Amino acid sequence: MAKDPFDEILQFLKPDCRIDLKHLSLEHLLDITGTASGKEALLKNEEVVRTIIDLTDDCEIISKTALLILVNITSDAHGATELLKYRPHNKTNVVELFLGYVLDPKKSHADAACMILSNITRVENSVKVCLDTFIPHLEDLLKVLSNLNYNQCKSKLNYIAPLFSNLSCSARFRKWLTEPSMKQYPFIPLKKLIPFCNYVDSVIRRGGAVGTVRNLSFDTSYHEFLLSEDLDLLTYILPPIMGGEEYDDEEMEKLPVACQYYPTEKVRDNDEDIRRMIIETLNKLCAKKHGRETLRNNGVYYVLREYHKWEKNPAVLLACENVIDILIQKEDEVGAEDLSSVQVPEDMEEKFRKMDEDFLNSAP
């Protein structure tokens, strides 16, 4: 039986091994995990993987490389699922270990630990497995995200936002996000997250915040809360799709106050995925009569009318047109109070899908 080449590397990863040899060995493993075949091969050697996890708490240069190896390993669903099976010393799972790194203000390379958590939670089944580990620390994570200078080693921790987006596939997380927290003082967690929908310094943080709102919008039971005056959601999700266009006085008065009278140099978000998620969110919020009327009363049609003139991506344009088609109708023309409950016959659903495909394929 051929000897596992990773077993030879193990001797250079022991705690008492010289740092330079340890670092060279980890750099080699980092290169290997840059390929799918390399990741698969490494995951078969549990002792090496366990040693790499332990080395994330070594000196700075060793810790950094070990963390980056695990970022690579968790970059696909299989690797993320496999890593979640490990139980570091005195920890429930690796999530507990990396949460500790993220919440430690003195931890170097906490960004890499944050990326690992974000990667792991992209797998929906993994969220179910590790949610109990996250729940006691959610408020702490939100405070870290809200404090831009939390980490003393200059880690930005932007990946907490997509981590929240991933967790929002869980009903328990959505409940926490939308109800007053009583741990120290009452506040609604989502209110602290949505301002990052416009955070210009990080597309990762913006995308995570918008993605969380989008996932919430798939659950119609939250629509009235999302569109409540207290939350003021439209103030945060409309600006990324707004430019510096002029509106007439009647149209301008309908817009949320914070979205009125933008300067002519105002630009839209340059990230296509973020714009698409916002349009998808508006689409979902049109499911019920209350949502449609709220969007109409806040001038969303006018915003989308101008946005449609600007957007070039065919898929986003199609999504935008779908929302416009709903908003320009009067309620008696819509035909249902709750569009999400309307059953579309299979033959018609296939016909609509084919029409969408033809539109996208015909786009220049």
From TrEMBL:
Q: Which residues form the Protein HGH1 N-terminal domain?
A: 102-275
The record, for InterPro entries, names: ARM-like, ARM-type_fold, Hgh1, Protein_HGH1_C, Protein_HGH1_N
Residue span, Protein HGH1 C-terminal domain: 281-333
Q: Which family does it belong to?
A: Belongs to the HGH1 family.
Protein name, UniProt field: Protein HGH1 homolog
